[in-house]
Amino acid sequence: MYRFTIGIENLQFYALHGFYPQEQIIGTIFRVDVYIHANVLEAAQQDELNGTVDYQKVFAICNSIMNQPAKTLEHLALTIANQVWELNSHITEVTARVTKAGVPVQGIQVAQTYAEVKKTA
User: Fold this and answer.
1) Is residue 72 pLDDT above 70, yes or no?
2) Per-domain residue ranges for the chain?
3) How far apart are CA 89 and CA 53, in angstroms?
4) pLDDT at 104 exceeding the cut of 80
5) Do the bridges between strand 4-15 and strand 108-120 make them parallel or antiparallel, or are there none, so unpaired?
């Protein structure tokens, strides 16, 4: 039995996501990582894109979502996971992580925070 994992890591976006008004004005760097488990053995054996996950479609989903204002990382991660899930019927699991760099917390320096969601069959 084979288990394929397709990983798309470190997609970087400058965006204005955040709950607080200053976050929505100043913005910061966000990173998106997506991990997809899928039964793509036949596509792999045939060396064909048809039947596997097209990375360009994943990039497009992430870009579209990250360019729409959101208040929470959880919302962004969930939306990405749900839309990637719909790409291919062979997908059995999607993990989406959205990381926010340089989180503004009064009196504390926080390098990053993230929200991660895993959707399974």
Assistant:
1) yes
2) 4-120
3) 10
4) no
5) unpaired
